[in-house]
């Protein structure tokens, strides 16, 4: 079995919405495939971003690499536009004291063309999101 990560710019993914933007740490860093680059929020919560996949895909596992995120909500949409989102999961994350938080979420064949990540609360005034990985069996 071959796994493909559809949350990569090279696979046609785009960040179509982000509630904050810093030119040094833009939202596009989430989909560049690197853990050493990131999107930084500009304070105040909730914060969110939406990733557009280049087609409707079946996702088996989502992984997010982030820092200082406390409460995370993930939603999906199968629409042609980023509307009609449905809750996938909401979770309280553990603080990792200076380390990246790496959270994996398994789904029994979840279909999505858009993924919305809502950071409801944080352990500090700012958070960073380094990568989102969507494992899709090709």
UniProtKB/TrEMBL annotation:
Gene3D superfamilies: Galactose-binding domain-like (2.60.120.260). The keyword Calcium applies. GO terms for molecular function: metal ion binding. Residues 18-121 form the F5/8 type C domain. Keywords: Calcium, Cell projection, Cilium, Metal-binding. InterPro entries: FA58C, Galactose-bd-like_sf, IFT25. One of its GO terms (biological process) is smoothened signaling pathway. GO terms for cellular component: centrosome; cilium; intraciliary transport particle B. It is found in: Cell projection, Cilium. It holds the Pfam family F5_F8_type_C. Its main location: other. SUPFAM superfamilies: Galactose-binding domain-like. Component of the IFT complex B, at least composed of IFT20, IFT22, IFT25, IFT27, IFT46, IFT52, TRAF3IP1/IFT54, IFT57, IFT74, IFT80, IFT81, and IFT88. Interacts with IFT27. Interacts with IFT88. PANTHER family: INTRAFLAGELLAR TRANSPORT PROTEIN 25 HOMOLOG. Belongs to the IFT25 family. Component of the IFT complex B required for sonic hedgehog/SHH signaling. May mediate transport of SHH components: required for the export of SMO and PTCH1 receptors out of the cilium and the accumulation of GLI2 at the ciliary tip in response to activation of the SHH pathway, suggesting it is involved in the dynamic transport of SHH signaling molecules within the cilium. Not required for ciliary assembly. Its role in intraflagellar transport is mainly seen in tissues rich in ciliated cells such as kidney and testis. Essential for male fertility, spermiogenesis and sperm flagella formation. This is Intraflagellar transport protein 25 homolog. It comes from Anolis carolinensis.
């Amino acid at each position: 079995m071959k796994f493909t990560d559809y949350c990569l710019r090279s696979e046609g993914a785009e960040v179509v919405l982000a509630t904050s933007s810093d030119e040094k740490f833009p939202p596009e860093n989430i989909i560049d495939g690197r853990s050493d680059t990131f999107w930084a929020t500009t304070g105040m919560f909730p914060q969110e971003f939406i990733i557009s996949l280049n087609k409707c895909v079946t996702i088996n596992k989502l992984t997010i690499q982030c820092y200082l995120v406390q409460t995370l909500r993930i939603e999906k949409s199968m629409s042609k536009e980023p509307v009609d989102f449905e809750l996938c999961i909401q979770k309280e994350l553990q603080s990792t004291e200076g380390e990246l938080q790496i959270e994996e979420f398994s789904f029994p064949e979840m279909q999505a063309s858009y993924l919305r990540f809502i950071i409801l609360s944080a352990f500090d005034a700012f958070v960073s999101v380094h990568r989102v990985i969507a494992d899709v069996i090709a």
